[in-house]
Amino acid sequence: MPSQSNTPAAPNAAAQAVRDLTARLNAARSYGEASQLLDQVLEPAEGLPHGLEDFFETAAKTAKASERQDGFDLYHDLQTDALTLRRLGEDLHVAVERMQALAAPQRRSWQEAVADYYATAHSAPSHPAPAPAPAPPPSQPPSGRTR
Questions:
Q1: What is the band of 117 on the pLDDT scale with cuts at 50, 70, 90?
Q2: What single DSSP character describes residue 30?
Q3: How far apart are CA 41 and CA 35, in angstroms?
Q4: pTM for the whole thing?
Q5: Is 51 exposed, middle or buried (0-12, 13-18, 19+ CB in 10 A)?
Q6: Left if phi > 0, otherwise alpha if psi is -120 to 50, otherwise beta: which for 91?
Q7: How many Cβ atoms are within 10 Å of 94's Cβ, its own excluded?
Q8: Which pLDDT belongs to residue 128?
Q9: Can you tell me the distance from the alpha carbon of 129 to that of 15, in angstroms, rounded to the nearest whole number?
Q10: pLDDT tens digits for 4-27?
Q11: DSSP 12
């Protein structure tokens, strides 16, 4: 059995730390702030997936040290879990950049841009307005002569 540390850990301290990070993420006021929190959690060398991977690998070695069949079975299970965490970390490595990208204004599709252009563009009429009809000649008053 491995030796125990002299410093007592608070019950569920790791779970509480994750809950605190989750609360901070819920309170984030921007995608930039959210991406900073993701970066803390997902940092490749020191982030949570890497730390959990190390934790499970250490637990696997501890189980194997028992030199019992149950210990060897547990060793293999924990090694598989560590590998799963490694792959999870690899899959999530782009999450920070993807969260940051959400802060950028979304590009409109070309159809939306064209529709917006035609809806707001001021253009000259394509056909000139018809010319007004010529005014009738002024009527002449009757001259009083008859033929």
A1: confident
A2: S
A3: 10
A4: 0.60
A5: middle
A6: alpha
A7: 11
A8: 61
A9: 76
A10: 555 556 679 989 998 999 999 999
A11: T
Q: How many residues does the chain have?
A: 147
Q: Which residues contact 123 (CB under 8 A, 6 or more apart)?
A: none
DSSP state of 66: T
User: Where does the chain have alpha helices with state H?
Assistant: 13-26, 31-42, 48-64, 69-91, 95-101, 110-120
Mean pLDDT over the full length of the chain: 83
User: Residues near 31 by Cβ (< 8 Å), separated by ≥ 6?
Assistant: 99, 100, 102, 103
> What pLDDT, on a 0 to 100 scale, did the predictor assign at position 45?
84
Q: How far apart are CA 23 and CA 125, in angstroms?
A: 58
φ and ψ of 4, to 5 deg: -100, 150
**Helix or strand or coil: residue 74?**
helix
Q: How far apart are the first and last CA of the chain?
A: 141
Contact call for residues 95 and 77 (beta carbons, < 8 A): no
3-state secondary structure of 45: coil
